[in-house]
Amino acid sequence: MLGKLKHFDFDRPLPAGSWRKLAIGTWRHRGQNPQAAGAREIDVTSVLEYLEKRRMQGENAALMHVMAAAIGRVIRTFPEARSVLRFGKIYPRKDVSLLVQVAVSKAKLSGVVVTCPDRKSPTEIAKELGVFVPRLKSEKKAEYEKSLLYRGVGVMPSFFIGLVMDVLGTLFYTLNIHPRFFGLPADPYGCMRLNNLGALGMDDVIGPHVPWMHSPGTWLMSRVQDRLVLGSDGKYKTRKFLKLWIVFDHRIADGFLFPRVFGLIERLLKRPELLWGESLTQTDQPHPHSGPGTKSEQR
């Protein structure tokens, strides 16, 4: 009976040192915006060339699908990337999921939760989104817009909405009660979310930490741009770079995690064939003290 009430399966809480406890105590409420943001410009020339070869074989995966598959591996590798703060402790979820946000119109964003992106290839993720995204665009109302909660938010006074979301967050995440008992979908936001604002022509963008999603972080893709890079032969060559942002809940993770996360992303993008079936070998796993290999910044 208790198993049916559970929303998520959690692992044991992660060990927390003095600085982590201080961060949790500093931002006692999610609404205080405890965000830490970092970015890195990543050379995606080889990935795009590899994608072109696969397109010639009849596949339709794009860079966003590659990033979703790579982020899935990051979420599985680093427990902080799939954690929820409960009772002042950091509890990693056992599952891996990713909310991929898509534009269903010029003025409206929606999203699809991809389950187990750590086990799927970019082609499989592309096929999955290819089924759900047209459905989102064709429906007059998305499924969440039909829910009693969404309709209720439309008539609630603004000051009351935050209280309602806090209560729901306590029920579904802190107390871990399944939302189906309230007529709501399970895990509507995934472990993390990915927003490809580069598809909207944005050269550089950073998004907010959204407290009521109870997610440890958000990934944001900017538009791919050409850069002149000095080669080993002393000549400049044009390479394609993607600026990738991540916004983490500072209570769960800090800047020490950033270079490790970006390091794994870069290793996967240098060997994109890993995302089409090969599992990570021991040498591909991130080193605890691995540093950034390209331009990086933090805020």
Q: Could you report the average pLDDT, rounded to the nearest whole number?
A: 83
| Name of the CATH superfamily | Chloramphenicol acetyltransferase-like domain
CATH level-3 fold name: Chloramphenicol Acetyltransferase
Helical fraction equals 25-40%
User: In angstroms, what is the radius of gyration?
Assistant: 20 Å
Number of structural domains: 1
Low-confidence stretches: 279-299
Output the structural class.
alpha+beta
Query: Biggest sheet, in brief?
Result: 8 strands, mixed
Helix run count: 8
**How would the global form be characterised?**
globular
Strand content: 15-25%
H/E series, N to C?
HHEHHEEEEHHHEEEEHE
What is the CATH class?
Alpha Beta
Q: How does CATH name the architecture?
A: 2-Layer Sandwich
Short recap of the structure:
This protein has 299 residues and is α+β, with helices and mostly antiparallel strands. The chain has eight helices and ten strands. It has a single domain, classed as Chloramphenicol acetyltransferase-like domain (Chloramphenicol Acetyltransferase, 2-Layer Sandwich).
What does this entry look like structurally?
- This protein has 299 residues and is of the alpha+beta class.
- It has a single domain, classed as Chloramphenicol acetyltransferase-like domain (Chloramphenicol Acetyltransferase).
- It is 32% helix and 22% strand.
- The chain contains 8 helices and 10 strands.
- The strands form 2 sheets. Strands 1, 4, 5, 6, 7, 8, 9 and 10 form an 8-stranded mixed sheet that branches. Strands 2-3 form a two-stranded antiparallel sheet.
- The C terminus is likely disordered.
